[in-house]
Amino acid sequence: MGVSTGPPEEAVDLGRLRRLLGTPDLAWLVERTRRRMEREQPLTGSVSLDRPTEAQRLAAERLLGRAPRGGRSLSVRLDAVDAVLRRSGISPAGLATAVTALTGPVTRLGQARRDASRAWEQAYEPLHALGGDLPRLRAWTDRLRADGLVRRLARDPAAARTLLDSAARVLRELPADPAVSLPAFAARVTGSAHALDDGTPLATLTLSGIRALTGFPDGSGAEWRRDAWASAGLLRDELSSTVLTLNLRGTPALDWAAGQGEPCVLTLRQLARAPLPTAPPVVHVCENPAVVAAAADAHGPGCPPLVCLQGQPSAAAVTLLRHLHAGGTTLLYHGDFDWGGIRIAAALLRRVPWRPWRYEAGDYVAVAGTARSLPPLAGAPAEAPWDPALAPAMAEAGVRVEEEAALGLLLGDLAPEGRGGRGVRRRAGGGSRAVTLEE
Question: Domain DUF2399: where (predicted)?
């Protein structure tokens, strides 16, 4: 909001003022005076113009009633101009009122900055309330106030307030359970089916909040965005996200595949619309499809239920594992012993509790000490929250142990009863308690 300085313009003889001070040759003087007013500086002392024209010198002489000092620059004392305007009756209130009459209300920059700061504080109020109501989002809301994302997405405080109101409303509804179509959810919560389309400010902000809400790892690309939405129960594509399984039961198709001992792929659509009616007591979880293929070859229908992440856990994989955990299943996890594998396991642990399946420091040391020609460990180290000793052991040995290197041990654990697997499976299933990152 503009803040006018000086008395009302009606006190000014505007015609005479324009002839005296409002000429193009004195525009520099008016501009410098207005700049001082904006900065709330006193209208005293001199202002100067380098290399003035003869017309500018004559205009200053006419204004002051005397020739200004000579030289390469033109210098005019603001006190003298103020006195002329008051004494002549052109602007009885002085120079500030005259400049306001000529150029319009002057915005004091200090006050403008204070007003803008107050407006932005009010814009962030929905974030403050969201962090207070949902403590798990508090760190994200605090970070969002500081990292500038909202200011990049919204052009001004009013637009930011509207954006943050909408984002808070969306995040309060998440995660959606059961999962729903993203456009349908957007239409219900925001009034527009396209409000959460790719590239919209609301979609960008909401995806940032979803990562904080669900622990979904950072990433980019269409597939990553699809899985990030799905981690909060919002489905953009129900068919592309899949999970590989072996010997799970509960539907005619799964029962048939389990009867044949053949791997089966489940889509997110199947899992969201028709969750499995049963949950086995124990399900083993691996990272690489090679383990599933080898288990199917070695044990067929006798292999205990197995789920494979195939790298980063997909929305379908997380949906399935959450359903199993909620049904009372104990999840036993094994992955690659490298920094990428540790990160995958930690990301899954933030979303679903599991117990390590030959995936602790002692297991790594045992395999690394017996396997041959292991590749070197590369990349940035990562912590293993389920076993603080694992990362130091890996760093010390400096070798990468992929799941295939431990395949014999894993297949032994998966062997059917009566074929040497009972004792091993009891170790894998009962040797460690379930852990979460909060512990």
Answer: 264-414
